[in-house]
Amino acid sequence: MTLNKFNLPDVGEGLTEAEIVSWKVKPGDAVAINDVICEIETAKSIVELPSPFAGTVSELLVEEGVTVDVGTAIISVSDEVSGDPTPADVRAPEPPAQPLYGKLPVDAAEEPTAAGSGSSPANAPLVGSGPKADAVKRRPRKNAPAASVTVNAPEVEPVQPRTPAEVTGSETAAVDNRPTLGGTITGLVNRVLAKPPVRKIARDLGIDLADVVATGSRGEVTREDLVSYQAQRDAELDKADGFWGKAGKPQDQRIERIPVKGVRKATAKAMVESAFAAPHVSIFVDVDASRTMEFVKRLKASRDFEGIRVSPLLILAKAVIWAAARNPSVNASWVDNGDGSAEIQVKHFMNLGIAAATPRGLMVPNIKNAQDLSLKELALALNNLATTARAGKTQPAEMQGGTLTVTNIGALGIDTGTPIINPGEVAIVAFGTIKQKPWVLDGEVIPRWITTLGGSFDHRVVDGDLSARFMADVAAILEEPALLLD
């Protein structure tokens, strides 16, 4: 028997550490090559790790929630397969599957692997679904006589007052003698007694009648019982800790400590480096985006854009691409060579970054070669980027190589701001909310759709004149989207 240890790999360029979010296997489980064994959280996203070995899980070497360095052993897999061998297992040995993190052939993801096989062919998908569980077999159900089941028992409410003897005699006997199916539907039979108005009040207050002490003459829950129960519940809630905690507790016991790791750790490091390495200069411009709003409305009604989410951000993204082509130095990087010299690298392609607020923190995935996309293709790319980011499925490669970033702070109702440049870039544009404001047009004050653009630039690369021309070009497109057709 050979024991193979799997070391945490670098799933992205320059990854140094990752947190084990969850294990998908446990000791004793059989795994095939490319079966998903765990989820890890890198500095940028959550990634599924496939197994590079086939065999039986021997030991999980790292617990969930622990952050480890790249190269640390996280799991050991023995080459013995648990269980009795099947005919599929007893055959001539096949060539070993291609290494997980090596290069795959072009058609590697086109032919699925048969579910449940003990090994994967060389062209197996990088992340396999693993063996499927056998279908659940249910025992045949024995049908009970129709008369023995009571369905949707009617609500019980008192109609006429009766004597205690009648209550304890006839009614109790009626309740106890209702037919049941081996005692399994006693919950339906022994329902809490309450009038319909009382039941409605309980539903409105979110009260389970079974929790209320009944004081009615026939054991039913009354309106007064609900009032008493609600008062008691409110008193308990008043005693419970709220956001500020109990006033009597010492302050050091009212501090929530959140470890800085994953996306938050990476974002903090990048923002500090950018803010103190690149001398920021920011400028702002108010824009009449009324024609952009009209253009977006026409796109939404267009058959070509049916089923595609269209917003003013689409026009801004196209405007930024167009304006960068007219002012190339905003689509660049400042690179220190390490020997005291430096160079400016102007990118003749646009990997447009879109800052996205997600449950895991700020992410900036980018649309590769955005300059080559039509308006419809750009809209689809923006939709896919937003959906993937919110679901936490953005991959590290999608957040690498950005050349210029847009942050849509207007989605949160903010007019403008001074954004920090994404590391490795020299410009970022903040898109404020679009709202109707009084605007002077041809000497008249009329309501127009107005937004404010804010731009931050690395002053080592972008001078004041260049940043102003770039922002003016972006504003020109928002004021007249027809310029994109030139």
Could you tell me the number of beta strands? 18
CATH level 1 name of the largest domain = Alpha Beta
DSSP strand content: 15-25%
pLDDT averaged over residues: 78
Main beta-sheet strand count, sense and barrel state: 8 strands, mixed
Computed Rg: 33 Å
Percent of residues in helices comes to 10-25%
Query: What best-fitting shape do the alpha-carbon axes yield?
Result: extended
Q: Unreliable segments (pLDDT under 50, ≥5 consecutive)?
A: 84-189
User: Class by helix and strand content?
Assistant: alpha+beta
The CATH topology of the largest domain, please? Answer: Chloramphenicol Acetyltransferase
**SSE string, helix = H, strand = E?**
EEEEEEEEHHHHHEHHEEEEEHEEEEH
The CATH superfamily of the largest domain is known as Chloramphenicol acetyltransferase-like domain
